[in-house]
């Protein structure tokens, strides 16, 4: 029988940072559906927000609330902002190298930010953060990692969570017992045909939560990002980071004229782009950096530049065709400010959870920060409330009933999130 103190599902920033913040006397298992690096955290381009100084608290709060249509949980927003500097210090201690400008850090701006407050590592911020977290987690003697190991159910009895059922690559099911379980399974992009997310991120934990009657929130709050690279092909959409527009890139229609403020909140700019596409009768609008972005474009955006070249576009010189694509999920498993779910001993953090911090529409570069702040708080809450109980004896998992349960749970999730057309039309 596999028995751990803490079971963490997912190796994005939320799962890894929780492991790093749990006390070293805990025996921890981290299970993840793909490889360690197959997660959206790795893809994050633009950066991570931070409260720059005391004067920035109110503007940061207001920007987040305005982008979220004032439907945010204000206490969650304040908690995130108040802990932002501490999280950045933690990341620096873990070896993350943010870009510098002179003696200080380089801050960029993205849509709906009233001030430049986004730290970045060129256009590969997520890769820099997640690879440093992976390296540090691998050094921990109390942590085991199972790759290609999929959460397919939770072990629930007596009003508490006792662990989870995992499926390995060969399809074998096992009960994994844990005193505390943290769900950090990311978003739902894999449910959409056009998404910037990894295809295997299909909201599994949220579906399983629905199956067990665990509280969920705002399941129809799906974010469409205004600018992904238009290719006309199916498959993962490549994100054209908001920081391109933050640094000055413009959007134009067929007539070469600008049609919107490029730094509108994401949902409003997406609407403006769809209106322009309809007017132009084209499946994209165009983005131009040349003459609008100062400094070395290839130096500041090496990843995006290289990808565009592969697709036949020169980011430095050319108009680039862009189109909206599903990007982020504001809803999820309902949690409090310590990432506790409505089921005892079950926690959720990162994109799969919903503490209301983003309201109806997430402000750019608040996701990495939210995931890190609230996974650290989850780790602290787990440590503080930890009590060893004897594992509840569950029968060996039955493949047929697990599959049937998952099918029904996924059907419910799709019903709640709404159709792809509805998400784009909102
Ligand atoms: C292209 C792109 C660019 C982005 N840029 C930024 C940015 O610049 N700034 C910002 O703040 N945010 C950005 N975001 C959003 C941000 O990256 C994510 O919201 C955040 O990283 C989520 O972290 P997470 O740990 O919750 O989930 P993820 O990093 O997605 O990790 C989820 C993990 O759960 C695992 N998993 C899923 N289902 C199961 C299952 N059933 N069983 C076991 N494991 C499972 C996955 O394999 C993965 O390891 C971007 C997102 C994308 C897609």
TrEMBL record:
Pathway: Cofactor biosynthesis; NAD(+) biosynthesis; iminoaspartate from L-aspartate (oxidase route): step 1/1. Keywords: FAD, Flavoprotein, Oxidoreductase, Pyridine nucleotide biosynthesis. Residues 5-368 form the FAD-dependent oxidoreductase 2 FAD-binding domain. It catalyses: L-aspartate + O2 = iminosuccinate + H2O2. GO terms for molecular function: L-aspartate oxidase activity; steroid dehydrogenase activity, acting on the CH-CH group of donors. Its EC number is 1.4.3.16. The keyword Magnesium does not apply. Pfam families: FAD_binding_2. GO terms for biological process: 'de novo' NAD+ biosynthetic process from L-aspartate. Its cofactor is FAD. InterPro entries: FAD-dep_OxRdtase_2_FAD-bd, FAD/NAD-bd_sf, NadB, Succ_DH/fumarate_Rdtase_cat_sf. Belongs to the FAD-dependent oxidoreductase 2 family. NadB subfamily. PANTHER family: L-ASPARTATE OXIDASE, L-ASPARTATE OXIDASE, CHLOROPLASTIC. This is L-aspartate oxidase. It comes from Trichococcus flocculiformis. The lineage of its organism: Bacteria, Bacillati, Bacillota, Bacilli, Lactobacillales.
């Amino acid at each position: 029988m596999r028995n751990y103190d803490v079971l963490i599902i997912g190796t994005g920033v939320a799962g890894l940072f929780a492991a790093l913040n749990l006390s070293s006397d805990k025996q921890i298992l981290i299970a993840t559906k793909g490889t360690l690096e197959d997660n959206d955290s790795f893809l994050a381009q633009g950066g991570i927000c931070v409260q720059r100084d005391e004067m920035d608290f109110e503007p940061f709060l207001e920007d987040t609330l305005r982008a979220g249509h004032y439907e945010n949980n204000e206490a969650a927003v304040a908690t995130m902002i108040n802990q932002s500097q501490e999280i950045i210090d933690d990341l620096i201690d873990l070896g993350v190298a943010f870009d510098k400008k002179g003696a200080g850090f380089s801050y960029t701006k993205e849509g709906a930010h009233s001030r430049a407050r986004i730290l970045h590592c060129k256009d590969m911020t997520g890769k820099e953060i997640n690879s440093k977290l992976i390296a540090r987690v691998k050094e921990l003697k109390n942590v085991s990692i199972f790759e290609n190991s999929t959460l397919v159910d939770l072990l629930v009895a007596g009003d508490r969570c006792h662990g989870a059922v995992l499926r390995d690559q060969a399809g074998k099911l096992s009960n994994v017992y844990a005193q505390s379980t943290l769900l950090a399974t990311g978003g739902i992009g894999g449910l959409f045909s056009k998404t910037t997310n990894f295809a295997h991120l299909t909201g599994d934990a949220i579906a399983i939560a629905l199956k067990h009657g665990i509280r969920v929130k705002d399941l129809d709050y799906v974010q469409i990002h205004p600018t992904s690279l238009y290719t006309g092909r199916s498959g993962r959409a490549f994100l054209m980071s908001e920081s391109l527009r933050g640094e000055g890139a413009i959007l134009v229609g067929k007539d070469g004229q600008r049609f919107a403020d490029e730094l509108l909140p994401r949902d409003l700019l997406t609407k403006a782009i769809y209106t322009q596409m309809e007017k132009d009768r084209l499946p994209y609008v165009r983005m131009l950096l040349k003459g609008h972005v100062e400094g070395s474009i290839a130096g500041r955006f090496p990843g995006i530049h290289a990808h565009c070249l592969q697709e036949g576009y020169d980011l430095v010189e050319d108009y680039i065709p862009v189109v909206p694509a599903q990007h982020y999920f504001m809803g999820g498993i309902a949690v409090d400010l310590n990432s506790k779910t409505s089921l005892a001993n079950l926690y959720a953090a990162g994109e799969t959870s919903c503490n209301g911090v983003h309201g109806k529409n997430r402000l750019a570069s608040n996701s990495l920060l939210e995931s890190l702040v609230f996974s650290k708080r989850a780790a602290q809450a787990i440590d503080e409330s930890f009590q060893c109980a004897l594992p509840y004896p569950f029968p060996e998992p039955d493949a047929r009933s697990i599959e049937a349960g998952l099918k029904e749970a996924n059907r419910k999730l799709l019903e709640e999130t709404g159709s792809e057309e509805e998400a784009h039309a909102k």
